[in-house]
Write a structure and sequence with these properties.
single chain; Rossmann fold; Outer Surface Protein A, domain 3; 23% strand; binds S-adenosylmethionine
């Protein structure tokens, strides 16, 4: 499937959408017809469950699924019955002739969530363990990284958004559900061609621009920038796959995405990045702190760390090089490359940066391998929103009315029959799922925070019950109250 795509007219995209809908080739219809487990097979890149579910069926939905989802040949007469614009699809090289059949040169995968329903147009996913060497400009469909990033994206108060490195257009598709203006960029012209189809099929009006990093938006600024950039750190000329690796050394491309973002953000704007970074002999957070632009707050969560062997094996397999003659040579070359750069392991995670303009910004770099409550986007927004209240002067903090988040549960652990628990834990059933051991006094104060009484009053009441000096209790608990506010347990009432 090496055909060069040609542009499909807007009218042909509209006609294609009508044909897909007429054939009930939608996520909802397919899920109810084929069943979750058949579709889950495709998540594992196995076509067998869907092929079996379609066995003996010759209706439009079955043929559209064979053609656009499974990449199977379908008789020309059938395809012409399904699509009004076959000649346009052939001219655009989205369909190719295969004897008496047509085959799709791209994948159109039904995709959606609670707010939209559409199709992702991408290069075909290799199914059933088929290994191939993807073309350098291969355009990946919805990957686990894409869907994770989509769940990190804040939705409130965003008018304009940049999807940097849009690929198949998946992030722009998500953004369209809540943003008025979307610009989507990519260095790969083929990606923009396919993103145009993805977005056109959903009726999304996005401004698609060709170019590297922030070049195509040099005169623009946004409320939100989202990106899942080509973060794979490879030796020069390793695979040439544009979707996963840039030309920078080590994690240089990630660094540029973050450090050059500030000028492209509106005041108060947010950058959300999913990616990899090098871990060297320095503390990883210390290295990444240098990437964060002045006047910006940041929350960076390192979700996973891979050693160089795991990392190289993962990406050699992704490039279809497992079992190839030069596997060992490439593996060794890659390890040498890492050794030369002092890369001891690779961190994988999420970066959120907000342009607050604060003279003393808040920056947090955390190991966070724990399960989170998706979509976790609101937890990033809450982190930034909590900075100001957590820093209030003491008198304002004490005069303030606070409320314990409804999603905090208290867990107690201890010997049965014991007067007091050995451990008392506040655990968030939302966002990052943080947990803290507050101790008896703080638990009593926080537990009483329902917005009715000022914090100072509650502290004094708890001091009286515990028969301790109120001033000493304030001094002891106020830093911990600030932490509960900063971490989203306590909210301004
Ligand atoms: C990992 S893919 C992410 C695609 C999509 N945003 C997603 O979430 O699935 C990275 C994308 O960045 C594009 N890209 C590579 N180098 C780039 C650069 N220097 N500037 C902009 N985009 C680039 C690739 O072509 C690819 O589409």
């Amino acid at each position: 499937m090496n055909a060069e795509l040609q542009p499909l007219t807007d009218e042909a995209i509209v006609a294609l959408r009508a044909d897909l809908l007429a054939g009930a080739y939608t996520l909802e219809a397919l899920t109810s017809r084929l069943g979750e487990s058949a579709l889950n097979g495709l998540v594992r890149n196995s076509s067998v469950p869907v092929v079996r579910a379609l066995a003996g069926r010759s209706d439009a939905q079955a043929d559209l699924t064979r053609l656009w989802l499974l990449g199977l040949p379908v008789a020309q007469t059938r395809v012409r019955a399904l699509h009004s614009g076959v000649d346009e699809l052939l001219a655009a090289q989205l369909l190719v002739t295969d004897g008496d059949d047509y085959r799709a040169a791209v994948e159109l995968k039904p995709y959606g969530d609670e707010s939209f329903s559409g199709w992702i147009c991408a290069d075909p996913t290799p199914l059933d363990g088929r290994v191939g060497r993807p073309r350098p400009d291969f355009v990946l469909g919805a990957s686990p990284a894409s869907t994770t990033l989509a769940q990190l994206i804040p939705r409130d108060g965003v008018v304009s958004a940049l999807d940097l490195g849009t690929g198949c257009g998946i992030q722009a598709l998500h953004l369209a559900a809540h943003c008025r203006r979307i610009v989507a960029t990519d260095l790969n012209p083929r990606a923009l061609q396919l993103a145009r189809i993805t977005l056109g099929l959903a009726g999304v009006d996005a401004d698609l621009r060709l170019g590297s990093l922030y070049e195509p938006v040099a005169d623009d600024a946004f409320d939100l920038i989202v990106t899942n950039p080509p973060y794979v750190m490879t030796p020069p000329d390793s695979s040439g796959l544009i979707y996963r690796e840039g030309v920078e050394i080590g994690d240089g491309l990630m660094r540029r995405v973050v450090s050059e973002a500030a000028d492209r953000l509106n005041p108060g704007g947010t950058l959300i990045v999913l990616g990899n970074w090098a871990i060297t002999e320095r503390a990883w957070g210390e290295r990444l702190a240098e990437w964060i632009p002045d006047g910006c707050d940041a929350l960076v969560l390192q979700r996973e760390v891979l050693d160089p062997f795991e990392y190289v094996e993962l990406w050699l397999t992704d490039a279809g090089l497992s079992g190839s003659d030069d596997y060992q040579r490439r593996y060794a070359e890659w390890l040498d490359y890492f050794a030369g750069l002092g890369i001891e392991s690779v961190g994988m995670g999420w970066l959120a940066v907000r342009k607050s303009g604060r003279a003393v910004p808040e920056r947090r770099f955390e190991e966070w391998p724990h399960a989170v409550h998706q979509p976790v986007a609101a937890a990033f927004a809450d982190f930034f929103d909590a900075i100001e209240p957590a820093r209030l002067p003491e008198d304002e903090l004490l005069a303030g009315f606070w409320r314990l988040h409804d999603g905090v549960l208290q867990e107690t652990l201890g010997r049965p029959g014991a007067a007091d628990p050995q451990h008392l834990v506040f655990r968030q059933q939302y966002g990052f799922g943080r947990a803290v051991e507050p101790g008896t006094a703080l638990a009593a104060v926080a537990g009483a925070c329902d917005g009715d009484l000022a914090l100072g009053t509650l502290l004094d009441a708890v001091a009286a019950i515990l028969e301790v000096d109120p001033d000493a209790l304030r001094d002891e608990l106020l830093p911990q109250v600030r932490r509960l506010i900063a971490e989203g347990y306590l909210l301004p009432a």
